[in-house]
Amino acid sequence: MKPETIEAAGVRLRPFREDDADDIAAACADPETQRFLPRLPRPYTRDDALAWLRDAEPAAWAAGGANYAIADPASDRLLGTIGLSHVDADRAQGELGYWAAPWARGRGVTTAATRLLAEHAFADGFHRLEILADWANPKSVRIALAAGFGPEGARRGAAFNSDGSRRDVAVFARLAGDPAGPVARALPDLPDGRLTDGVLALRPAAPDDVDFYLELMSTPDIVASHVPPLVPDREEIELRCARAQSRWLLGERADLVMVDAATGAPAGDIGLYYQEPPTAQAMIGYCVLPAFRGRGFARRATALVARWAFDNTAIARLIAGTNPANAGSQKVLESAGFLREGYQRNRLPGIAGGRIDDILWALLPGDLRETS
């Protein structure tokens, strides 16, 4: 590839100039940029930007890749960067990477730039392009999917943290013959970002829900029904909350916080786990803090999630499991329209190495009983 200006779909990719240094410095000093590019100098100064323009930027071209400024077609101001690195000429493949400046986020320019550079690279002879995204960076995951890069799993220990340790990343890829449109999502976004029946609201779990989940998952009777029945440590909860939005985007699961609509207080959790897409079957599980029990929150949450799933996804069957001793959970499922379908002996791990039975319940679209 060669450094030339290319433009399409309201975005311009052009070679860098020395007068981009101030914008590069401002963007790379931004906390979000530094969070997901942890090896950037801290603090990041104009001198760092000039050094990058002098050394690292031309090195990408020399290695057979690319390094473009994403620029506003009207003003030519820098909006971000996009590059092609880790080029393997024998396999005709490379890796796309990008960041957006704070003043350009939310405008779709990075997605447009990713599509444009991908098409340019394919026309130049590349066959396979990859994007490696941090699981905790749902914005990057959205860009990859919107640009036609399909998820291919995880690459363990492929990225560095700021302390020198390593972390896993999600892998996305697009081949030269793949469709140019966005990758279809199995679990779409919620309308207006939440579901509600006026009494209870459900919102996606977020990174700042760690303390709530620690309290919830430390409640003794909730621990007893958890798989495995152990209190998770803070690091595990932090990882779960940080990755929740990306796992939703990838169609694996939707983790939702139950919120008391009157007070805004988090009351519990309900999860939709799309564990069997080929048969259009998903599973739900829920738990409620003791202070909010007896108010029908689990029943309302179940109905809200089931209706959303049946109306907005390919899911045709929902299943759930209950401990035979948990009469309350069985009542929740029965009142929502779930039918008991089986009794599974020693299905789940229990406390102290034991095993517990599990009752299997299932719900079809015509079975659902709406809340009043």
Automatic annotation (TrEMBL):
<dbReference type="InterPro" id="IPR016181">
    <property type="entry name" value="Acyl_CoA_acyltransferase"/>
</dbReference>
<protein>
    <recommendedName>
        <fullName>N-acetyltransferase domain-containing protein</fullName>
    </recommendedName>
</protein>
<feature type="domain" description="N-acetyltransferase">
    <location>
        <begin position="11"/>
        <end position="178"/>
    </location>
</feature>
<dbReference type="Pfam" id="PF13302">
    <property type="entry name" value="Acetyltransf_3"/>
</dbReference>
<dbReference type="InterPro" id="IPR000182">
    <property type="entry name" value="GNAT_dom"/>
</dbReference>
<dbReference type="InterPro" id="IPR051908">
    <property type="entry name" value="Ribosomal_N-acetyltransferase"/>
</dbReference>
<feature type="domain" description="N-acetyltransferase">
    <location>
        <begin position="200"/>
        <end position="366"/>
    </location>
</feature>
